[in-house]
């Protein structure tokens, strides 16, 4: 696309960080980054080529998604891309999942996505162009045991994005869903689950696919990317 002014949420670590690094190396792009951890977010910005705008904040706070989106748009002189990577994981059987945990996952993974996408979509629609990319992940497409709260939030995210794509198609806003399998990222650091991270998808690989989808020619529409390691493949 000719104009590339992109806001990346969850840019302090994992896929969001790697997406920022990948995109910063592509010519003609301006980036704005947001995340909750100031030190790690500043590390991401320092590792990027160029000087991304940085906005620290917890997007679950009322009004903050709209505020940061507006600030990012002002800092870059426009907004035509949103890469929404902010989220939280939980692997726990249904019987052991608390009401508070379920509510927290829906708030962090679904409500925040709704607010960020809502804030970005109408801005892009006013200029008749834009791309919104988010990551339901493979657990937003296929069920897996011990993921009731997480999968509920991600299936909800997938449904949300499909509706947004329908509502904004005629306004030139494209919506991209990334259904990635297990990604070797800090997602797993605080989860009580034994996993073989060397068998997972490197975060930088997912980021490369994200960067390619976001910078493809404007007339090419990527609606879904499904990328899984062959060690645990959902069909």
Keywords:
seven-stranded parallel beta sheet, 235 residues, alpha/beta, globular
What does this entry look like structurally?
- By secondary structure, the chain is of the alpha/beta class.
- Helices cover about 40% and strands about 20% of the residues.
- It has helices at about 15-25, 40-45, 65-75, 100-125, 150-170, 205-215; strands at about 5-10, 30-35, 55, 80-85, 130-135, 175-180, 185, 200, 225.
- The strands form two sheets. Strands 3-2-1-4-5-6-9 form a seven-stranded parallel β-sheet, with helices on both faces.
Unreliable segments of 5+ consecutive residues: none
Structural class determined from secondary elements = alpha/beta
Q: What percent of the residues sit in helical stretches (DSSP H or I)?
A: 40-55%
The tally of strands reads: 9
**Strand order, biggest sheet?**
3-2-1-4-5-6-9
Instruction: Give the SSE string.
Output: EHEHEHEHEHEEEHE
The CA-CA distance between the termini, in Å, is 33 Å
What is the helix tally? 6
* Share of residues in strands: 15-25%
Shape: globular
The main sheet comes to: 7 strands, parallel
Average pLDDT, rounded to a whole number, is: 93
CA-atom Rg in angstroms: 17 Å
């Amino acid at each position: 696309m000719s104009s590339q002014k992109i806001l990346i949420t969850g840019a302090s670590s994992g896929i969001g960080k790697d997406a920022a690094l990948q995109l910063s190396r592509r010519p003609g792009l301006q980036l704005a980054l947001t995340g909750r951890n100031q030190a790690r977010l500043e590390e991401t910005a320092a590792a990027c080529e160029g000087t991304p705008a940085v906005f620290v904040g917890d997007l679950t706070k009322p009004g903050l998604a709209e505020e940061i989106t507006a600030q990012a748009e002002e800092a870059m002189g426009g907004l035509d891309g949103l890469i929404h990577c902010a989220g939280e994981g939980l692997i726990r059987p249904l019987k052991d999942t608390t009401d508070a945990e379920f509510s927290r996952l829906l708030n962090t993974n679904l409500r925040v996505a709704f607010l960020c996408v809502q804030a970005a979509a109408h801005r892009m629609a006013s200029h008749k162009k834009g791309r919104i990319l988010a990551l339901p992940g493979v657990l937003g497409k296929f069920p897996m045991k011990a993921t009731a709260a997480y999968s509920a939030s991600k299936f909800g995210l997938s449904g949300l994005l499909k509706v947004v794509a329908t509502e904004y198609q005629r306004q030139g806003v494209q919506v991209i869903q990334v259904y990635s399998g297990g990604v070797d990222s800090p997602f797993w650091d605080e989860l009580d689950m034994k996993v073989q991270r060397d068998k997972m998808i490197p975060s930088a690989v997912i980021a490369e696919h994200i960067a390619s989808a976001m910078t493809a020619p404007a007339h090419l529409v990527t609606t879904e990317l499904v990328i899984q390691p062959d060690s645990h493949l959902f069909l």
